[in-house]
Design brief:
- The complex is a heterodimer of chains A (about 200) and B (about 350).
- Chain A has five helices and two strands, in the order αααββαα.
- Chain A is mainly alpha-helical.
- The longest helix of chain A has about 35 residues.
- Chain A is elongated and about 55 Å long.
- Chain B has two domains: about 30 residues; about 325 residues, Catalase core domain (Catalase HpII,  Chain A, domain 1, Beta Barrel), CATH 2.40.180.10.
- In chain B, strands 1, 2, 3, 4, 5, 6, 7, 8, 9, 10 and 11 form an eleven-stranded antiparallel β-sheet that branches.
- In chain B, helix 2 packs parallel to helix 3 and helix 2 crosses helix 7.
- Classes of the chains: A mainly alpha (about 200), B alpha+beta (about 350).
């Protein structure tokens, strides 16, 4: 029985840290713009967490360049591989862009970003026009991240629960026991084709 | 093979995937408030201002009529024992700010009875800032943002009579006796002649922390060094639409204006969460320094229009209290700021050119 190839240990840890941070952040962002009572608390978490995500994104990018990737599963079509690669790049871009746009937007609004006793230096001059553009961008990019995450979640769940090809186990923080499910029969792949047909239908 | 991909088993697993994804989506919509259409949000509170006052793009949704001011604050060091905030250490920091009249009408005529506000931004070392918005009333009229929203609607002018509907107003006061009590306290204190001789109160409580982590609840006020005078008696000549702002400019041409920053120390039992309640007169007051305003300027050129005087932009050593109005003010100011930042800017009512202390008008 073949040992299922996994992402590097550091990649898996960073993936899940970032997943928790980003999902928390998306929820806080959505809740804070709709809340009067919890706004103060949520902003007090949102800004330092944004700074943390930016640092984490940098570490993750370095790790991504250093660690080899496991090969794609046979269950992923050529088109699916292209989409997976593109969405990975998009998510990396958003991990940098969202905190940077948030920081820039507050700089343009002349709002000091305090992290405990420290204040981040502004990265843009005071300009309400820039603030307006960046504030809107921050929302648009956050929705884009949310929809990309939803697509990512759907794809992983489909592979793991419906195709049962063990896709998720490649990223699990622990090593799965040897029940590798990526050895698949031709019969299985025919049924996958049926699903593809249904999706397109 | 038991785990085949055929038939009802695979369909059930696919349904599970769809259910998980939809649940995550629904959870996100839930935290974003999509399933709570009746809950008051920053957007809905600001919508109420826009509905009651009409659209005034480019202006603040409340305290719409104002001017930009600047000067400096000199701390005397007396606040250091209460707070580690650098603003209390002896020395001088630059201040920009805004004098304004409460209400969402940027072109309303001045009236001595309208609530006056002083908003300040203390530019502190290392990029820290202290922003505060204060009013010339001793207590605030409501204790929650929901009550504030209700009050805006209840006391809005009826389009037919141009006055508040008395039935709606009395229903509001019956539901909110704390507002009726607060208004009695406010009415007991006659307004002074203008911006220069008004006392401006923080209304909300804050929490100071010293170097040892000791916390002190405070409210603060800017107490004028200009001798308070009653409003000018009617002269038979109708006062100009901007007479309060004009008088401010005229006084500044004669010399700088000064206020003492006074901290009132709360004692156990003094409410920090209810801005409608006054603290006893006997509470210790600490004079921590002097504010000097030596410059006034219309909003077209002044910087105040592009600043959000968010009361929760605070330096290390000053924090908000448990008053729910603080979080709500921060949220609603941000909403108002974001809306007006994206709108075309119309000329402000008060177009004072840049005036320094002692300069000739």
């Amino acid at each position: 029985m073949s040992k299922l190839p996994q992402f590097a240990w550091s990649s898996r840890v960073l993936h899940w840290l970032m997943a928790v941070a980003l999902l928390t952040m998306l929820c806080i962002g959505a809740a804070m713009v709709a809340s009067l009572g919890q706004y103060r608390l949520l902003v007090a978490i949102h800004r330092p967490l944004g700074a943390l995500i930016l640092v984490l994104a940098l570490i993750r990018l370095v790790n991504r360049k250093l660690q080899p990737l496991p090969p794609f599963l046979a269950t992923m079509s050529a088109r699916e591989r292209v989409i997976a690669t593109a969405s990975e790049r998009l998510m990396y871009a958003l991990m940098f862009l969202l905190p940077l746009v948030g920081w820039a937007m507050l700089s343009a609004a002349r709002v000091p970003v305090r992290l405990g006793p420290l204040v981040l230096p502004p990265i843009l001059p005071h300009s309400v026009l820039l603030y307006t553009l960046l504030r809107r961008s921050h929302t648009v990019l956050a929705y884009l991240l949310f929809f990309t995450f939803m697509a990512h979640l759907s794809a992983v769940l489909f592979h793991t629960l419906v195709l049962r090809d063990g896709l998720l186990s490649r990223m699990l923080p622990w090593s799965p026991r040897g029940r590798a499910r990526n050895l698949r029969s031709a019969q299985d792949r025919e049924h996958d084709a049926e699903y593809d047909a249904e999706d397109r239908g | 093979m038991a785990t085949s991909h055929t038939g009802s088993g695979a369909r059930a697993r696919l349904a599970l995937v769809v259910a998980i994804v939809l649940s995550v989506g629904a959870g996100f919509l839930y935290v974003g408030g999509w399933f709570s259409p009746r809950q008051l949000t920053p957007a809905r509170l600001v919508d109420t201002f826009e509905r009651v006052n009409g659209p005034h793009p480019g202006f603040r949704r409340n305290h719409a009529k104002g001017v930009s001011i600047s000067g400096y604050f000199e701390a005397n060091g007396a606040g250091v024992r209460l707070s580690k905030a650098s603003v209390f250490r002896p020395g001088r920091v630059e201040v920009v700010g805004r004098f304004a009249l409460a209400g969402g009408l940027p072109y309303a005529g001045d009236s001595a009875a309208t609530v006056r506000s002083m908003a300040l931004l203390f530019a502190l070392p290392n990029g820290e800032e202290w922003r505060t918005g204060m009013n010339n009333i001793p207590v605030f009229v409501v204790k929650t943002p929901e009550a504030f929203n209700e009050q805006l609607i209840a006391l809005a002018a009826d389009p037919a009579t141009k006055k508040p509907n008395p039935e709606r107003a009395s229903a509001f006061f019956a539901k909110h006796p704390e507002t009726a009590r607060a208004i009695a306290l406010i009415k007991a204190q006659a307004p002074t002649s203008g911006f220069a001789d008004s006392t401006y109160n923080s209304l909300n409580a804050f929490e100071l922390s010293d170097g040892d982590g000791r916390l002190t609840p405070v409210r603060w006020a800017m107490v004028p060094l200009q001798e308070p005078a009653p409003p000018a008696a009617p002269t038979g000549v109708a006062p100009g639409a901007n007479f309060l702002f004009d008088a401010l400019t005229a006084r500044l041409t004669q010399g700088a204006l000064r206020w003492r920053l006074v901290l009132t120390i709360g004692q156990p039992g003094d409410s920090t969460s209810d801005a409608t309640l006054a603290w006893p007169e006997s509470r210790e007051r600490v004079d921590v320094g002097t504010l000097t305003i030596d410059h006034v300027e219309g909003e077209a050129t002044g910087v105040a229009r592009t600043i959000n005087f968010d009361p929760l932009v605070l330096p290390n050593g000053i924090a908000g209290s448990d008053d729910p109005l603080l979080s709500a003010r921060s949220a609603a100011y941000s909403q108002s700021f974001t809306r007006r930042a994206g709108e075309p800017v119309a000329a402000s009512a008060v177009t004072t050119p840049s005036v320094e202390k002692g300069s000739q008008p």
